[in-house]
């Protein structure tokens, strides 16, 4: 689009990010554009101007508009989508709606998000179900090795398999459709945790074929924090309930999820503005920029550090993991300490995780990022390495 803003340093003025810092962690919590925060505040002002009218008449239709707008990007009807606050809430609703029994199995991976793992553990401890955790290959070189590792964990007792669309610690874009098909073939239901996928990847829900899919809109879709969706296939929708049961109980999926008690739903109500912002930048243009910058970042960092990236371009979205050079530690505590120093001493925000016997940086690439920031990270880590020697 010819009037769309340029990416890189000039795009930073569209966001509220503080000056002088290098922000390479869009993936964890997103960063909301100024225009979208303004829209969210307008919703809050409307609420407080006449709270009763807003809560009783205006807010649920607003949520439905958000779900309808989003549904166009997902290839499913709006009525099959619930707006929730985050992916953790959605996963809780799904898993806590299941009736599991002793001997049933829940399949997760070593890279399943920790909050999701905890939910699985809790659900399993109450039902006597067994948690099976398989190890995904990392660094990952091909999607067939991922599919093989995953399929090896499926048994005829697997009731539900949890599949990440994009893994959190390693930023791998998993072959979700093939993994869902494998789960289904084994007789298991498939829950796709797409926390990072909306905005980062095209999502064709019918083609993925899962039973449930959740995605955060507050990461790569530019919505304010507290905006996510939960989609459920026709066959499983009736049995699905929010974790908080309220007035809508028994009145169907939409009624149950739209009202979970009095709350400020402005992050979800502002979703159409976030989508409009993304559309103005160009959905494909953003995705392409971010993907190219992620791949380029991996190349630059791995070259500067003499190390490797966690995944090839085919398994990469808008984030990439890169192994830090030797001598900087191998434990999660050392990774956290390195992250703290980069932030406190150099104002570089980047997560560092202990994986595969080393420390890895997970670099997010968003429209406001550019190569000079990557070079600043490369140099800062090399200084750390020299200091540690
Ligand atoms: C794979 C995955 N699942 C779930 C979540 C949880 O997201 P939220 O904190 O918004 O619930 C994250 C967050 O980064 C994630 O990466």
User: Which CATH architecture of the largest domain is right?
Assistant: 3-Layer(aba) Sandwich
Unreliable residue runs: none
According to CATH, what is the class of the largest domain? Alpha Beta
SS elements, strand count: 12
What gross morphology would you assign?
A: globular
Order of helices and strands: EHHHEHEHEHEHEHEEHHHHHEHEEEH
Q: Taking all residues together, what is the mean pLDDT?
A: 97
CATH superfamily of the largest domain: Type I PLP-dependent aspartate aminotransferase-like (Major domain)
Indicate how many domains the architecture comprises. 2
The main sheet comes to:
7 strands, mixed
* Gap between N and C termini: 50 Å
Specify the number of helices: 15
Strand line-up of the largest beta sheet: 2-8-7-6-5-3-4
Verbal overview:
There is one protein chain. By secondary structure, the protein is of the alpha/beta class. The chain has two domains: 9-31 and 282-388, Aspartate Aminotransferase, domain 1 (Alpha-Beta Complex), CATH 3.90.1150; 37-276, Type I PLP-dependent aspartate aminotransferase-like (Major domain) (Aspartate Aminotransferase, domain 2). The chain contains 15 helices and twelve strands. It has helices at residues 26-29, 34-49, 51-74, 87-97, 114-127, 143-151, 176-185, 205-208, 234-237, 253-258, 266-269, 271-281, 283-305, 332-346, 371-388; strands at 22-23, 81-84, 105-109, 130-134, 158-164, 189-194, 212-216, 228-232, 319-323, 348-349, 352-355, 358-364. A seven-stranded mixed beta sheet has the order 2-8-7-6-5-3-4, with helices on both faces. A three-stranded antiparallel beta sheet has the order 9-12-11. Strand 6 (189-194), helix 8 (205-208) and strand 7 (212-216) form a beta-alpha-beta unit. Helix 2 packs antiparallel against helix 3 (51-74), helix 4 runs parallel beside helix 5 (114-127) and helix 13 packs parallel to helix 15 (371-388). The longest helix has 24 residues, at 51-74. It is globular, with a radius of gyration of 21 Å. It binds pyridoxal-5'-phosphate. Pyridoxal-5'-phosphate binds next to helix 4 and helix 5.
């Amino acid at each position: 689009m010819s009037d769309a803003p340029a990416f890189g340093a000039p795009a930073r003025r569209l966001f509220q990010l503080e000056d002088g810092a290098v922000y390479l962690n869009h993936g964890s919590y997103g960063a909301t554009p100024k225009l979208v925060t303004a829209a969210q505040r307008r919703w809050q002002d409307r609420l407080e101007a006449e709270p009763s009218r807003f809560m009783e008449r205006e807010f649920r239709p607003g949520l439905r508009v958000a779900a309808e707008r989003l549904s166009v990007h997902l290839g499913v009807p709006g009525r099959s989508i619930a707006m929730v606050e985050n992916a953790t809430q959605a996963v809780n609703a799904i898993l806590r709606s299941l009736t599991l029994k002793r001997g049933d199995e829940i399949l997760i991976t070593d890279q399943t998000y920790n909050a999701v793992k905890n939910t699985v553990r809790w659900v399993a401890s109450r039902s006597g179900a067994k948690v099976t955790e398989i190890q995904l290959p990392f660094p990952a070189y091909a999607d067939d090795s991922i599919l093989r590792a995953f399929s090896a964990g499926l048994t005829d007792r697997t009731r539900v398999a949890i599949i990440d669309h994009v893994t959190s610690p390693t930023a791998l874009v998993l072959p979700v459709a093939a993994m869902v098909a494998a789960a289904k073939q084994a007789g298991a239901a498939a829950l796709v945790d797409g926390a990072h996928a909306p905005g980062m990847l095209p999502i064709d829900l019918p083609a993925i074929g899962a039973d449930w899919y959740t995605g955060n809109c507050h990461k790569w879709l530019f919505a304010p924090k507290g905006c996510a969706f939960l989609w459920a296939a026709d066959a499983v929708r009736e049995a699905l309930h929010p974790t908080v049961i309220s007035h809508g109980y028994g009145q169907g999926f939409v009624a149950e999820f739209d009202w979970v008690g009095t709350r400020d739903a402005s992050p979800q109500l502002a979703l159409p503005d976030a989508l409009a912002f993304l559309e103005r930048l160009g959905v494909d243009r953003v995705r392409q920029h971010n993907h190219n910058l992620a791949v380029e970042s991996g190349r630059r960092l791995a070259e500067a550090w003499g190390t490797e990236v966690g995944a090839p371009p085919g398994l990469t979205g808008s984030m990439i993991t890169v192994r830090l050079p030797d001598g900087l530690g191998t434990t999660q505590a050392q990774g956290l300490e390195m992250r703290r120093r980069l932030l406190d001493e150099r104002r570089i925000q980047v997560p560092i995780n202990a994986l595969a016997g080393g420390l890895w940086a997970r670099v997010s690439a968003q429209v406001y990022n550019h190569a000079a920031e990557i070079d600043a990270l490369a140099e800062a880590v090399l200084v750390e390495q020299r200091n540690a020697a």
